User: What shape does this take?
Amino acid sequence: MLARKSIIPEEYVLARIAAENLRKPRIRDRPRKARFIAKNGACNLAHKNIREQGRFLQDIFTTLVDLKWRHTLVIFTMSFLCSWLLFAMMWWLVAFAHGDMDPSTESTTNSTKWTPCVTCVRSFTSAFLFSIEVQVTIGFGGRMMTEECPLAITVLILQNIVGLIINAVMLGCIFMKTAQAHRRAETLIFSRQAVIAVRNGKLCFMFRVGDLRKSMIISASVRIQVVRKTTTPEGEVIPIHQVDIPVDNPIESNNIFLVAPLIICHVIDKRSPLYDISAADLVLQDLELIVILEGVVETTGITTQARTSYIAEEILWGHRFVPIVTEEEGVYAVDYSKFGNTIKVAAPRCSARELDEKPSILIQTLQKSELSHQNSLRKRNSMRRNNSIRRSNSMRRTNPSLIVPKVQFITPEGNQSASET
Assistant: This one.
């Protein structure tokens, strides 16, 4: 409802309505694209309609390692239990075939020498206990095998071999699950956001990586890939087109010494997919930069890999990471509370191609930033000076004792002059 003319002028109301309409977005927001790599390094990919499921059973060890812990523990328990039950049935059949479970054999034992295949095995329960003793090598001493049955000796050898295989596979699976490489990657962290700023006269894409553990990652290397949807000149649509981009590293081996957090830099030059992208175009780009850190764990010798990704909304143009490594009492200290903090710096808003074609843009940007910095310093100093003057005046008003009295001086000519000190 419009306001009354007597209270608010009509031209003011119309101007306010026009301003509210301008604030409303007229274009709908672009739907957000699904990430290929999540921030925690997980691949956002679902495999569907796999017909050849038997391929997973051909690599049974890797399948067991990739299973969840609850499934692995169920398989671990059932493998031992089923093997015990299987060989318990075999021991029961051996004893039953030899006649060890016949009650009439107890009377004939007194008259003639009769030897059972396994002593004290007269039921399936006793056969199951004997199977456990054989496979786990407990040996309580109540039940033991004799030389009477060659078949029992064969079953004993077979159960020992099967038990060793089960122990090796299942214990190796448990060890590999506890020492998986991605567990070590949990302490390899990346900055939440990446930045684009000027370094050494070039526009650079930068992010920070760090290791929270004291045990180092040996031969660590960083790779960057740009994933975007592209269309070939022939009209073929590639939904996930991966392009490697170089990392600026003064070491020829491309390895980094990750003893403290480092800022990884990619120079945006002619080889870079970001060469034609400006600050205004970055928001409209449908791209994702994947960062992969690989290395060997010092304590276990296992190769580990940590991943993350940056989309256009997570790249800050004209920012720089704050320093977090300081020297305190002869020791380099790292403040991880400032790991992802950035500050604004002077950076041209144009693309790297325009910057290479017109180098004067960078000089003008730096000059403008220097002038704005000097102006801000002047304003700050003037504000401090004014605040100090106001504070001193207020103190004089509140404290009358601070007011300096007037002193009269008498000159030799006899004239009196008043001065204020």
